[in-house]
Amino acid sequence: EAQVTQNPRYLITVTGKKLTVTCSQNMNHEYMSWYRQDPGLGLRQIYYSMNVEVTDKGDVPEGYKVSRKEKRNFPLILESPSPNQTSLYFCASSLSRTLNTEAFFGQGTRLTVV
Amino acid sequence: AQTVTQSQPEMSVQEAETVTLSCTYDTSESDYYLFWYKQPPSRQMILVIRQEAYKQQNATENRFSVNFQKAAKSFSLKISDSQLGDAAMYFCAYRRRSGNTPLVFGKGTRLSVIA
Q1: Rounded to a whole number, what is the distance in Å from the CA of B105 to chain A's nearest CA?
Q2: Banded model confidence at residue B10, pLDDT cuts 50, 70, 90
């Protein structure tokens, strides 16, 4: 089954404690991205990756890091989480930016930073 | 920069009736894609319908159809014969066809379906 898998789905952590949210897709997609969803703001892109070892900032990259060492994985790293990073996070992938623009989304990760 | 505006934070519809959700966007591009995504309480983001800007014909997927007005930069979603399972947040999104561009989302419209 084609899917994007995020883990964990729920996470409560304390300010300053490094964490990683994993994302994996099994569709051999080139393009992957991370979004955060906040009430009244919709989804905003944090980082994206065009392919292995190619990443770039989205609209709200501050406080986040990503890596793309393998095509299937695109982890989101919060080196020192803060309460304003409490949000719902989505990973998404698509075949490429031009051939197939449908984005497949993971099930979301609800992060709470206290 | 491209922007997407959904002017209706909340809408409601009676079961079996028809409802239209509004979306406008701002772009200087001529070639792009538009989408409607549904987010039910499970939080999953589900693609409802997609429209390619170069196609004049409005996209249709079963009970879901769009009214795409390119000159007016308007992309509304019509849901016919509304069902209880249609209750969700609906997001309009835009992506330019070329270049390293993300999906740009509107802020969403919460749709309630009344039995």
Answers
A1: 6
A2: very high
